[in-house]
Specification:
The structure is a homodimer.
Chain A lengths: L21 H9 L4 H10 L2 E2 H7 L5 H13 L3 E6 L5 E6 L1 H29 L13
Antiparallel strand pairs in A: 1-3, 2-3
The structure holds a DNA duplex.
Amino acid sequence: MTTKTSAAVCIDGWSGDLDTCPVRQVLDRIGDRWSLLLLLTLKDAPHRFNALGRAIPDISRRMLAGTLKTLEADGLIWRSVEATTPPSVTYGLTARGLSLIMALGPLVEWAFAQAPAILADRRRAGGAVSGVAIAP
Amino acid sequence: MTTKTSAAVCIDGWSGDLDTCPVRQVLDRIGDRWSLLLLLTLKDAPHRFNALGRAIPDISRRMLAGTLKTLEADGLIWRSVEATTPPSVTYGLTARGLSLIMALGPLVEWAFAQAPAILADRRRAGGAVSGVAIAP
DNA sequence: CTGGATCCACCAGGATACTG
DNA sequence: CAGTATCCTGGTGGATCCAG
């Protein structure tokens, strides 16, 4: 979502730049490799920096720090620093972050319900499409 | 989502590979630059190939063709070929594609409702986080 | 322990040209 | 009209080293 665009459509009649469409911006954020995963990890309980790293073993420290910063800038998570030595930083969900997770609920259910069928279709891709058409 | 992972967490206690998590797969698909846009364009009515290109001016033919193929392989859209000369190919939503759009509804509403506040927070990023914390 | 800074590999995706 | 093939660039993100 870095390229300049000039499309006049997006969603629900959104008629501005593609890059200013709210839905696009949200998907750009949670659609990346780590944001959603972090949000869902923090849903259960606040975590410290390295605890998050352990909960998501394959994230690099760079992406962990960067993604957390972005999520905080968006007000989706909070960050609390204990000025001890060594320092201890804790992250947790904000109300806004929680509301996002709630809004994701139906999508999550859909994903779990449809995943097997989609994977089956994808496997025999190239053949006829199996989905029932809305229009002929 | 091309990198091999071995994480043991994902969503709702999903305990397989990150890459096999249904929600990750769905987000990988609709989170890309064009899929959701195409789905929403097709929601209103079926479109022909070049009509889609005109509805979304800044998509390249390569990405248009590629994204359509993937969406079809996942059974989210159907593809109908008229063997005329010149050929005419029409795309439209399947029932599954429509159900995905429905599942996206709450997220879309959330995005529109939260976008202004998020952008405001993002602008003065670096300052204190404004979201109300769930936990202190 | 919690990051920032830097270097670099990889690949998604745009431009262009060509085919059925 | 509806794609496919090829080349090439720029951004994403991993690895590594450094700092508070």
